Amino acid sequence: MLQSKMKRAVYLLLALGALMPLSAGRAAEPAKPMTTTNKTELATVGGGCFWCLEATFELLPGVKSVVNGYAGGQKENPTYEEVCSKTTGHAEVVQIEYDPQVVSYEKLLEMFWEIHDPTTLNRQGNDSGPQYRSVIFYHNETQKQAAEKSKAAAQKQWGGRIVTEIVPLKKFYIAEKYHQDYFRNNPNQAYCQMVIRPKVNKVEKKLKEPKH
Questions:
Q1: CA–CA separation, 172 vs 73, rounded Å?
Q2: What are the strands of the beta sheet with 29-30, ordered from one edge?
Q3: Which residue blocks in 16-121 are alpha helix, DSSP H?
Q4: Tell me: the pLDDT tens digits for 48-106?
Q5: CA angle, corner 69, sides to 94 and 90, nearest 5?
Q6: Where does residue 107 rank: exposed (0-12), middle (13-18), buried (19+ CB within 10 A)?
Q7: Which residues share a beta bridge with 47?
């Protein structure tokens, strides 16, 4: 409950422009094609607050960029407030541009299962609502098959039933500017310290472990 209250307070400050100059009421922009080469691919996943996913996936070698946004809903160009109203059908997601020669799609999914709880329906900790659902948006049939295989493997590691959706990506909308690089820009903010920092520490520790 404390985390939820803090997060609501942060969003209020953001909406009032207290933390960043961009207004929170501005509509999300349809995603422009990300700069890619033959060496990069895209992955799109959701698992709770996109601030958390962004901060952790950025740590992986081979990840070129992580963009926060919305996917899976019906409304065109949704704003953050509309997504939080639970009426648009969108989930908070990250779109990851990565080099498959350095990190595979399967490795990204392994990280995905570790940095959120895929057994809680429409909830991560005190953050609740369909916008926080666990979901993998696949870009092609190869990703779909890899996601289904990865989910089956992850299920063996979890006590509860995994509720993660695996669905095709139709449209991805980039979130408002103040949502991008949030942890990097606000490392001492209370939500970052209490919720995001432990996830970042966990990933950093895992990445330092010797490879077998």
A1: 9
A2: 29-30, 172-174, 63-71, 91-98, 41-47, 134-138, 165-168
A3: 50-57, 80-84, 105-114
A4: 999 999 999 999 999 999 999 999 999 999 999 999 999 999 999 999 999 999 999 99
A5: 105
A6: middle
A7: 134
Kindly report the backbone phi and psi dihedral angles of residue 85, in degrees, each rounded to the nearest multiple of 5, phi listed first: -75, -10
Using alpha carbons, select from 13, 173, 145, 191 the residue that is nearest to residue 89: 173
- pLDDT at 16 (0 to 100): 41
Distance of alpha carbon 93 from alpha carbon 44, whole angstroms: 7
CA distance 189 to 192: 5
| Sign of the torsion angle spanned by Cα atoms 162, 182, 94, 201 | negative
Give dist(CA 65, CA 47) in Å, integer.
Answer: 18
Residues annotated as catalytic are: 49
In which element (H, E) is residue 172 found?
strand 172-174
Which tokens belong to 116? 């959120």
